[in-house]
Amino acid sequence: RFEKVWLALALVFILGLISSIVYGAVGPGIEMIDAEGGTVDPQNLDETEFADPGVEQVGENEYEVYVVAKQFSFDPGTPANGVIRVPANSEVTFYVTSSDVVHGFEVVGTNLNTMAIPGQVSKMTVEFGDPATYGIVCNEYCGAAHHAMEGRIVVV
Ligand code: CUA
């Protein structure tokens, strides 16, 4: 009889854990709302939403950011490609892919962290709070300049 109670408690605990991962605060000033994935043809990014990657406003306080990771930069993100600039108190959905090898997309100091895999799209919706600057680093070894592959998100 008690096994069922324990089982139920364990289930509640696990569900709580999962929801705290998906819905919990990921770091100062950022809250994760949703995360999922999709696919894309890495040979033909020019014919997808990744043809012209960048920040796009899609609602009053809603933005979409398409990011292509490639050796050894984020486009956008790396200053040479233009940093990612979004308004404070906005809901932002990131779509991240790679046009060559596997990269990482980690927002420094937060749990916002995904892989950038050729052929796959990592989708993450987050809420940004107050103005801040966040660093982005590649945390998957991707070649000679892996350590220098970085970018910035500026919340203004
Ligand atoms: Cu890109 Cu490491």
Fold and architecture overview:
The chain is mostly beta strands and about 160 residues long. The chain has a single domain (about 1-155), classed as Cupredoxins -  blue copper proteins (Immunoglobulin-like). Helix content is about 15%, strand content about 45%. The chain is built from 1 helix and 12 strands, in the order H-E-E-E-E-E-E-E-E-E-E-E-E. It has one helix at about 1-25; strands spanning about 25, 30-40, 55, 60-70, 75, 85, 90-100, 105, 115, 120-130, 130-135, 150-155. The strands form 2 sheets. Strands 1, 2, 3, 4, 5, 7 and 10 form a 7-stranded mixed beta sheet that branches. A 5-stranded mixed beta sheet has the order 6-12-11-8-9, with no helix packed on it. The longest helix has 22 residues, at about 1-25. Bound molecules: dinuclear copper ion.
**CATH architectural category:** Sandwich
Strand content: over 45%
Number of domains: 1
CATH homologous superfamily placement: Cupredoxins -  blue copper proteins
Unreliable runs: none
Question: What oligomerization state is this entry in?
Answer: single chain
Q: Between the first and last Cα atoms, what is the distance in angstroms?
A: 56 Å
Largest sheet: 7 strands, mixed
Q: Whole-number average pLDDT?
A: 91
The total count of strands amounts to 12
Task: Give the C-alpha Rg.
Answer: 17 Å
CATH class wording:
Mainly Beta
The bound ligands are: dinuclear copper ion
Structural class, by secondary structure, is: mainly beta
Series of secondary-structure elements, N-terminal to C-terminal: HEEEEEEEEEEEE
Give the helix tally. Answer: 1
What is the CATH topology? Immunoglobulin-like
**Shape call:** globular
Helix share of residues? 10-25%
